[in-house]
Structure formats: C-alpha cells, structure tokens
Design goal:
single chain, alpha/beta, TIM Barrel, 3 domains, 8-stranded parallel barrel, 6-stranded antiparallel β-sheet, 30 strands, 24% helix
C-alpha cells in the first residue's frame, strides 16, 4: 500500500553507510501530531464516497439512537430479549417474526410441547412467555421449540447467557444462570496504558494437561506468568460460546454466553478481576464478522427463515468459512450486535475488544484472494457500507460507555480511515493489527537466505502504515502457530528443537534460531506503530504447532496445550528466550520509547546493518550472519551512549560479545557528530543517550 506523503519523505532506499539528517535532530512524531485522514491528497478523488459513508453513519446513528441521550442508552436488546427474573416470575422474550408458535421445553414440562408453556405474540415481531418463579431455577436446562409454516425446530434462545453441552450426547442446551451470590468485584479497571503490550491467550489450551483448561487454572497458573513478563494487556480468545472447540472460538453460536467448557461466568469475572488487580487490562476477541451455521445451537434458521439475522440466500453464506453473514443493515441486527458490545463491557468489565474478521465484513467478496494495490479498491462499490456503519457505531458506543476502552481491528486490506477518529470521518478503531508483518517474517524465513536479507525492505515492511494510524505490530500471533503453518522458532529450528535445546549442548542451528528469534521480536517492537502483541508461549519459542482435537488427529489434545515446563527447566535454553522477552517488554514500558515514531539513521544494505532512533534510544541491528564490524561510524545527536538491552547478553543465551559497561561518546568532526561502534554479526542492541 502507498504511504501517506507526509511519511514517504523518510522512506528512501540507501546503499551508503551514512545518512545525512538535519543537525538539529528535532523530529517530533508524537501521537498528538498525527495527521488527519482527510489531509491525504491521495484520497481527494474519493472524498464523495468517504463523505457519503460518513453521512450514512450519521443517518443510521440518529435512527437507532432515537430520543436517547446517547447511542449506548438505546442499545439494550439483552435487557429485553432472553430470560429475565423478576420478583415473582420469569420472563422470556424472543424476536421471531416468521414463527407461528414458540414453546418452552424444560424439566418442569418433561421437555414436551405444552400449551401452558406457550409464548404469546406481542406484535408482528416479538414473542413473550411469563412463568411463575418456581418453574425455573438456577442451573436448570431449557430450550425453545419454534414452529413455523411447514416446519419446526428446537432452538437455544438468541440472547442466552449460558449454554452447556451434554458430555455424552454432545447436545447443547441453554442453562438458567442466576446464582444466589453473584460475583462481587474487588478491583477497579486499570487506567489505560499509553501503549498496549498485548498477551494473546486461549484459556482451553493454556496448561500442560491434555484436556480443556479452565478459567481458574488460567488465573492461578498462567496470569502470574503474564504479569511477570510485563505485559499490560491480556487478549482472550474463544470466550463467546462456540459448539466446535476446534474452531478456536471463531464459529460463535451464542453471542451473550461465556463458553461453559472453561468454567462459569463468575469464574471468568474472577479472572478479569484478578488481572485488573495486577494492572493488566483485558480485551475480548469478539466475533461479529459471522456466525456458526448450526441451527440447533445458533441463530441460523431461528424462525424458519434464513434471513432473520443474516442476508438472504448465497450472500448470507460465507464461501470460505461455512458460516452465516450478518445483515448489518437491519435495525434489529444492529441492536443485537451493539448490545452485545455493551453487555461484555458492563457485565464482565472487559476493557475493550479485538474485532475479528473485519476485512471479511467490509467487502462483499470478503477480500478473498484480493491484493489491495490501489486506493480505488477501497471505493469501487465492493464495500459493504452497512458493515462499515456498524463498526463505526460499535466504536461510538464502546467509547461512550468507557472512554478509555481499547478497540483493535483485525483488518488486512489497509482501508484508509479504519483507525481514524469518527470525527475525522474514520471508523473509530484505536488500533489496527499490522497483519502484513508476521506474513513478511515467515516469507523471509522460508524463501530468503540469511545473506540476502535486505535491511531496507525489513524497515519498510515494519513501518509501512498510514501516518494517521496507530497499529499493533507482532512477529506472530495464533495464526502462525496453527497446524499447517509453523511458529518462527519452529521455522528456525525444525527437528533440532527436540535435541539441541540443552544448555550443555552446542548447535549452530540453535544458535542462529536463538539470535534471530530475539532480533525479530526486538526490531518488530522497536518499530511498532504504537502497540505490540505476542501469542501465549511463543515468547519463549514453544516448539510445536497448535492442533485442536479433531477427527483427523484422533481427537487428541497433545497439541492443544502449552508446555510451560520447558521454559521452567533450567537445563533448557527456552529459559533464555523467556528472560529476553521479559526484559524487552519491561524496557518498552519503562523507557516509553513508543511515545514517538522511529526515524532511520542507517540502512546499510551491503553490510546488512540497520540503525534507527526512537525517543532518545538508538536501536542497532546486524542481520549479517557472519561478519562483525569494528569502528562502524554514523552521525547521531551529540552525547554519551550506554547499552540498555542486548540480545547477545549471556542472561539471554548470547555469546557476550559486547562489553555493556563501555560508555560510547560521539566525536565532532566539524560537520558531524560521529558515534563509533563495534557491531558483531547477528545481534540487536539498544543504546541510550545520557541526559
């Protein structure tokens, strides 16, 4: 994608060792000075489209909000629909315009159709049932029998807050959840950190056990690890109930229900509360891009029609995911999804959301197999304006409810304005994922010999974003760890990981892997557009892929877990990678270097040396696999420089080729302040300019 012209002047291709910069070195890339989306001259031909989309948002906002003081006040479908307890009775409501009758099935009527448990039609859209308080009780199972012209089917309520699966039949039922003693919160939400350092995690695979792990186990055994590493944000996957465990949580059936396979809603609240007590904010990986096709568990054919929540016909079916696509133009669907955001924020005190599958939402063709190489692709009529309006409204509602909430878009097309404020005619996300970065690293490792790594290309790929955007950089997420792919460390080591990781053994393959694993992470974080993400266990080079139990692997849990004992074993080198990750994350927090954007000092293509400055720190990288350089000189702000982080430190499994006690002073030549450094092969280190 083309960069904003305001940045492009810093994106040259240099082959020389030294790069001339203004002697003042007075660059200010602070967040406060991020340019406005509408200042991009490349967008001028498309302003009518952008204006039209924004007006569509304003019109929809007015319609949905109505007379309410704010959008959040108008989005309460979860308080009306679903099961609710009053002082004297239970009230259950459903939106099912095509239904001819709805019945409650439960133990109280022996799970049989009974006229005494028949819903009353309130209008041409809604149904209601009121039953005495003694009919239902906490933890009782129930379902709906929905009838329509020509058919019927058992369904789970659209707004059920709990669904459980029978261990033997594997059938899901709704469960009454109304504990006598609801969870009592202990800690306030932590203040928003200036820059999110995100630890992405999956509850079920978070322990070494070959089974589904629980919220309690995660809180007791994994959360302390995350806190010790220094991450300030926890991103939880697969929380919304999904029938198929192997979907990684991305085939949601029950949008308001906490996945019961991990524990109870109270146990999730306790986990989030514990994280807050440690100063860690918690994000929900929310799936509003599609819904599972299952009828008995999900929303598909809820009232006998395929178009209640979804588009009619083929448009309502995702061609790649075998799932259903929401009709974001329907007011009821908008209220359902917006209320869902409100529910998770208020009921569970999540601190924000990572919105999954945004690219799939905003293009009619879901962006499948498409290269977005020109701005015209964002404005050619292939865009679902209703989806863009929904996302804008979601950001509006979320930040109304909780101004410090964090929203992140998983989006790969590079749509301008996605991470721009709504007031600037953007969609309103705080950040977007830099999805091209992990793909770039994997491609580099797979296809390019070390001797041909081009540091100019590396820097460009890591910093290639629009000037007005804030982004989350990452070397790898859960996507790169799934079966069919490999983690970075597994690409680097392959089978050697099983035999060469002892501290008592020496392996050139492992030496290379250890060095590059640390360097790739450090340069990715060092160039990040405001935030950083790591997937659980990858920080210390988890040796294998992720493969959830399925028919193809004999329903095995062997690869749906995390082998923490490897990182804890003092005789294995995994501990060094873990120690480095902790040092790197703590440095990012303490130094606050992410407050400003990086600017390049050296891109020495021939020697494979990359040096950039950020917030008074020099980031020095040698991707050269064999050659070390003495007395390497380049122009920097005058002063004394000291080493603050070094991938080659023995504490991180390095060879200790740099004396970190040495103080480096610049030498003025009459026109330049030159710093002279010894730069060994395959290393990354950071120098601080002393005050």
């Amino acid at each position: 994608m083309q960069k904003n012209l305001q940045l492009s002047k810093y994106c040259f291709n240099f082959t020389a060792n030294l790069i001339d910069l203004p002697k003042s070195q007075s660059f200010d890339f602070s967040v406060a000075r991020i340019p406005n989306l509408m200042n991009d001259p490349l967008l001028l031909p498309y302003l009518p489209v952008i204006q039209g989309r924004h007006q569509h948002f304003i019109d929809t906002l007015r319609r949905v909000q109505g007379d309410a003081k704010c959008l959040a006040d108008a989005c309460n479908s979860h308080l009306y629909y679903g099961l609710h307890r009053t002082h004297t009775e239970w009230v259950l409501r459903e939106w099912a315009p095509n239904a001819t009758a709805i019945f409650l099935l439960c133990d109280s009527n022996d799970w049989q159709k009974n006229k005494h448990y028949s819903f009353t039609k309130l209008n041409d859209q809604d149904w209601e049932l009121r039953v005495p308080a003694n009919i239902l009780r906490h933890e009782m199972l129930y379902k709906l029998l929905v009838e329509w012209e020509g058919g019927s089917g058992e369904r789970l309520p659209s707004h059920t807050t709990r669904a459980v699966q029978d261990e033997y039949t594997k059938v899901f039922s709704a469960q009454v959840w109304c504990p006598e003693h609801p969870y009592h919160w202990q800690h306030p939400r932590p203040k928003a950190a200036p820059h999110p350092l995100i630890y992405e995690a999956h509850i079920g695979m978070s322990t070494e056990h070959q089974r589904v792990s629980t919220f309690i186990e995660f809180r007791l055994y994994v959360l302390p690890r995350i806190a010790a590493l220094g991450y300030n944000t926890l991103q939880l996957m697969a929380i919304q109930e999904h029938p198929y465990y192997g979907s990684f949580g991305y085939q949601v059936a029950n949008f308001f229900a906490v996945s019961s396979r991990f524990g109870t809603p109270e146990e999730l609240k306790e986990l989030i509360d514990a994280a807050h007590g440690l100063g860690i904010r918690v994000l929900l990986d929310i799936v509003h891009s599609h819904s599972v096709s299952n009828e008995a568990e999900g929303l598909s054919l809820f009232d006998g029609t395929d178009y209640l929540y979804f588009h009619r016909g083929e448009r309502g079916k995702h061609p790649a995911w075998d799932s259903r696509c929401f009709d974001y133009g329907k007011p009821q669907v908008l209220n359902f999804l917006l209320s869902n955001c409100k529910y998770w924020l208020e009921e569970f005190r999540f601190d924000g959301f990572r919105f999954d599958g945004v690219t799939s939402m905003i293009y009619y063709d879901h962006g499948l197999g498409k290269a977005f190489t020109d701005y015209s692709f964002y404005y050619d009529g292939n865009e679902d304006d209703d989806a863009l309006v929904y996302l804008t409204m979601a950001n509006q509602l979320i930040h109304e409810l909780y101004p410090e909430a964090l929203t992140i878009a998983e989006e790969m097309s590079g749509l301008p304005g996605l991470a721009s404020p709504i007031a600037e005619k953007g969609v309103g996300f705080d950040y977007k994922l830099s999805m091209g970065i992990p793909d770039y690293w994997i491609k580099l490792l797979k296809e390019v010999p070390d001797e041909q790594w081009h540091v100019g290309n590396i820097y460009y790929e890591l910093t290639n974003k629009r000037a007005e955007e804030r982004t989350i950089s990452y070397a790898e997420s859960h996507d790169q760890a799934l079966v069919g792919d490999k983690t970075i460390f597994f690409w680097l080591t392959d089978k050697e990981v099983y035999t060469g990781m002892s501290v008592f053994d020496h392996s050139l393959i492992i030496d290379r892997a250890m060095a590059l694993h640390k360097m790739i992470r450090l340069v990715t974080l060092g160039t990040a557009g405001g935030g950083y993400l790591n997937f659980m266990g990858n920080e210390w080079g988890h040796p294998e892929w992720i493969d959830f139990p399925r028919q193809g692997n004999g329903w095995s849990y062997a690869h749906a877990r995390r082998l923490w004992s490897l990182a804890d074993d003092s005789n294995l080198k995994f501990k060094y990678l873990n120690a480095f990750d902790s040092a790197m994350i703590h440095f990012a927090t303490d130094s606050k270097f992410l407050d400003r954007e990086p600017h390049i000092l050296v891109r020495d293509i021939e020697r494979q040396l990359l040096i950039f400055e950020r917030s008074g720190y020099l980031f020095v990288f040698s991707f050269n696999p064999t050659t070390s350089y003495t007395d390497y000189q380049f122009d920097v702000p005058a002063g004394k420089y000291t080493t603050v982080l070094n991938t080659d430190n023995p504490a991180f499994g390095g060879d200790n080729r740099i004396d970190e006690s040495v103080e480096h002073f610049t030498q003025y030549t009459g026109k330049e302040n030159l710093l002279s450094l010894y730069i060994p092969a395959r290393i990354g280190f950071i120098l601080k300019l002393a005050n």
